[in-house]
Amino acid sequence: MTKKECETLKKKLEYSNENAWKNLKVKLTDKFSKDYMAFMSEGKTERTFVKKTVEILNKNGYVPIEKADLKEEVKAYKVYRSKAIAIYRIPEDIQNGFNVIASHIDSPRIDMKARPVYEDSDVVLAKTHYYGGIKKYQWFNIPLAIVGVILKENGETIEINIGNDPKDPVFVISDLLPHLDRNPDKKCRDISGETLNLIIGSKPITFEKLDSPAKLNVLRILNEKYGIVEEDLTSAELELVPAFEPREMGFDRSMISAYGHDDKICAYTSLRALLDAKKIARPTAIVFFDKEEIGSDGSTGAKNQFWLPPIKKVLSARGKDANVFLDDLIEDTAVLSSDVSAAVNPTFKDVQEMNNAAILGHGIVVTKYTGSYGKAGANDADAEFVLKIRKLLNDNKVAWQTGELGKVDVGGGGTVAKFFAERGMHVIDTGPALLGMHSPYEIVSKADLYHSYLAYKAFVEKFEM
């Protein structure tokens, strides 16, 4: 065969994973990226993400499911315990299953303990417990914000957000200086969870002899500003998140650095996909869960399928046997478990099997199975469903690639996919690849961000089983 004939055959037969910037509309991508960065600046926790989502939904004609006329076309949402939300777009006629995009909006972080505040060596600190899989050393000596709620004994809820505004003070977990961090047997001392103590003050309330005068001063400030006492901290949810703002990254501004890409990037792109869709192929639900980073346990995690009861109410309002009809819908429901994947880090390529690794800037990642070791804890999508998703992406000119979370017996991880699969739904994992996943400052390609949006929009508008 001639060289030209070989090149033609190669193009025809070999799998090609091209760079996602090819044929991408840069101005649209940059505009979408700026909108995303602005949203992420405000939605750093699951509570603030839900609150911001509701604001946008209200502006776009969506209403709480309790206020919707369930007999007509439904454009509504259900907020679940302030930390999860399901968004519905359901036509008057329901004949087959739903299209569902499910993400999680919790991210690795550090939480305050129930009795956090103490004083030691004239410094006031707060005890913490880390949440999700983190490298503890990455959380030392960076500016942190405190975000969450405090519930007073009288039932009043106080919203806390200190450190994200440039005028606010920030808080720091201080590391040991290298001059004193020397151990002849180890390169450095071990970092345990109990060393993640947050510095929150140092000024004493008085110079008279008094136990913990600096702690008392901090409690005084909190009482004067928020009307709380120390016991109120036992009925609080206070999260420590990086006080960094999302920023464009690189000389070419081709990437975005931010806290919480995992997995708020998939939630935001799926929300925009639904709102921007001119039509829907089938009844659609966009669901944002909490607790994925700790196994999806708890009432707001994916193990609690809180998004299904509102669908039952819609079916009942339309004169159908909700339980029987829902079973039929579930069997024909298609789910994109939209979660991020790991991009190849050029400095640490040894952990990846490069033939099945995701490359930054090469489009949304389609992951047939997750889990670890022998696919334990995985959803393993059937080939028939993979083909349907593959065809959808190709037909709509969405840049995509396959990917796995590292080498066999080295990497692995889970998503919410299996909780849909165990109900009998068709489900597969899809989402952009990140560098530095689970760190305080993760990195994504703008091209992957935008192609994820395009993928979810095509799914909402055109996917049929």
Please describe the structure with a list of short key phrases separated by commas or semicolons.
465 residues, 2 domains, alpha/beta, 23 strands, Aminopeptidase, seven-stranded antiparallel sheet, 10 helices, nine-stranded mixed sheet, Aminopeptidase i, Domain 2, 24% strand
So what's the CATH class of the largest domain?
Alpha Beta
Beta-strand share of residues: 15-25%
Helix content: 25-40%
Global Rg? 24 Å
Number of E strands: 23
Q: Quick one: CATH superfamily of the largest domain? A: Zn peptidases
**Mean pLDDT across all amino acids:** 94
Structural class call reads alpha/beta
Q: Layout of helices and strands, plus pairs?
A:
Elements: H1 3-13, H2 26-42, H3 46-59, E1 63-64, E2 74-80, E3 84-90, E4 99-104, E5 109-120, E6 123-131, E7 144-151, E8 157-162, E9 172-173, E10 198-201, H4 213-226, E11 236-242, E12 247-249, E13 255-258, H5 261-276, E14 284-289, H6 308-317, H7 322-331, E15 334-338, E16 341-342, E17 364-367, E18 371-372, H8 383-395, E19 400-402, E20 412-413, H9 417-421, E21 426-431, E22 433-434, E23 442-445, H10 446-462
Parallel strand pairs: 1-2, 4-14, 4-15, 15-21, 16-22, 17-19
Antiparallel strand pairs: 2-3, 3-14, 5-6, 5-11, 6-10, 7-8, 7-11, 9-10, 12-13, 13-23, 17-21, 18-20
